[in-house]
Amino acid sequence: MNSKEEAEYVTRKLLMMSLKDFPVKSVLVTEFIDILAEYYAAITIDGYTREIILLFSKSGGMDIEEITEKEPELVRNFVLFGASGESGRQDLSQWLSEIFHDKNISEQALSIIWNMYKLFRDKDCSLVEINPLALTPKKLLAADAKIVFDDNGIQKHPELASLQNSEEHTADELEAKEAGLSFVSLEGKIGCIINGAGLAMATIDYIKLAGGNPANFLDLGGSSNPEKVINGIRILLKNKKLKVILINIFGGLTRCDDIAEGVIIARSQLNIKIPIVIRLIGTNDERGLKILHEAGMKALRSMPDAIREAVNYSTGDLRQ
Q1: H helices present in 159-269, as ranges
Q2: How do residues 29-67 score in pLDDT, each as one tens digit?
Q3: 129, 143 in Cβ contact below 8 A?
Q4: Which of 120, 206, 216, 225 is the 20 to 30 A CA-CA neighbour of 136?
Q5: What domains appear along the chain, each with residue ranges and CATH number?
């Protein structure tokens, strides 16, 4: 902004806006900086090699996924896993000196990136990103940054709990978290209750391939507590766009008979007016199938068959 008056005018306009139905409640104001060059730097985990790596590009300020896809040669990586003490820092220093020919800038980059690495390790992060890492007439600095903490490590760092913002989540997501469920709201009409994140992602992919749209991601985890099924169904039923509930269980630690018990209890306690498609296979599946059969419900063993049936309900090709 060129003046205080302009800043006030723009701030008022922003505070009157809504983004995806969420009203803007605050505005972040930062100092104007004169940027000579922009770089991208991120510490993350390579999912293939399981190594902690530094991703670096001279094309900062852009979406790194777009750069990687269109111009992969612009993104370089340096393996940090196992680097410790001065030996690891020296290796990184040599690597950066090949990118920044100015020794002063190279040393600043080394200090910033090494601190990113320490933060990544000390706070159990899955991503520490600076974009852009800006070169100004005076120094190299982080013009914008993003940090993603691993949820599984939050209990080790109680100081991070205060950083959580409940406004970033829907009411359903917050309720699911209280119930010990992993839940993410989506836009479709098929409510999903699944055990295991991998199976949940595969189910969502298959629903899309079959022509449907999932309404959520919900992972029961490895627990066999029927209460989780009841809570899951209760949360899904709050979505008025829902046309069908798909329960896809591949029982390991999760027992199919406990899932069946949860479904039966939910049906007796909740006002369920939409069809429920169930796929049960794995630990105690025969007992689970018997429980459902005796209650007048059926379950399928084939995941593709169950998904196709749920998609048909969601598109109106089947009637309850």
Answers
A1: 171-178, 197-209, 226-236, 256-269
A2: 888 888 899 999 999 998 888 889 999 998 887 777 787
A3: no
A4: 120
A5: 31-161 (3.30.470.20), 171-315 (3.40.50.261)
